[in-house]
């Protein structure tokens, strides 16, 4: 008997005494909670996103679409990055102004290879203003999850306003549940029992978010 069969068997036994006409699970829990907190226009929603990203110690930049290549080139130069990892579907014009050596997102690249990369640039699937969270879903312009967890510096581009929503429920509606999603609120950080904060433990030490629009 496999582990899967063993677990499913336990589930069946646990549900054996549930009446067939019992309330379906999807209707058993009231879902009349607020979809967002407060009424905000688009500009206010973007402002809230920037504020909460900063609160989480992400570095936030804003620019017009035509300025993005210059902004990305400047951020990589300030980081003194010698290599930048690029997802296969990233817009090639984004890095047109940068002369940093590009590293492809290869399936065979392991943690050691990725750890030698200085920076990674990705897009995102959606950004949540109320929580200051950016969400990646492994799309072509975001790449595999590991490329945003191992390199020490992550630059994420958010298109404003089309990729910005107010709340988590609104974000979930935009995501495909069959795709792997990574929810990022600021750079990776943890603290010990004395609350000494250490960054870069579970992911990038530095997260920079560029709001384009």
Automatic annotation (TrEMBL):
Residues 47-212 form the LUD domain. Pfam families: LUD_dom. InterPro entries: FTHF_cligase-like_sf, LUD_dom, NagB/RpiA_transferase-like. This is LUD domain-containing protein. The lineage of its organism: Bacteria, Bacillati, Actinomycetota, Actinomycetes, Kitasatosporales.
């Amino acid at each position: 008997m496999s582990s899967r069969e063993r677990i499913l068997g336990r589930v069946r036994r646990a549900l054996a005494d549930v009446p067939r006409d019992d309330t379906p699970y999807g209707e058993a829990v009231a879902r009349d909670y607020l979809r967002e907190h407060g009424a905000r226009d688009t500009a206010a929603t973007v402002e809230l996103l920037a504020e909460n990203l900063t609160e989480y110690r992400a570095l936030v930049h804003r620019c017009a679409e035509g300025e993005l290549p210059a902004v990305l080139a400047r951020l990589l130069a300030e980081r003194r990055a010698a290599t930048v990892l690029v997802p296969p579907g990233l817009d090639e014009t984004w890095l047109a102004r940068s002369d940093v050596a590009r590293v492809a997102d290869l399936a065979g690249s392991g943690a050691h290879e990725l750890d030698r990369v200085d920076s990674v640039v990705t897009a995102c699937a959606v950004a949540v203003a109320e929580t200051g969270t950016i969400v990646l879903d492994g799309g072509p312009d975001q790449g595999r999850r590991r490329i945003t967890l191992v390199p020490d510096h992550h630059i994420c581009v958010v298109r404003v306003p089309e990729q910005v929503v107010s709340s988590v429920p609104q974000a979930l509606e935009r995501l495909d549940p069959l795709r792997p999603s990574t929810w990022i609120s600021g750079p990776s950080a943890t603290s010990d029992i004395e609350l000494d904060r250490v960054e870069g433990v579970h992911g990038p030490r530095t997260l920079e978010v560029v709001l384009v629009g």
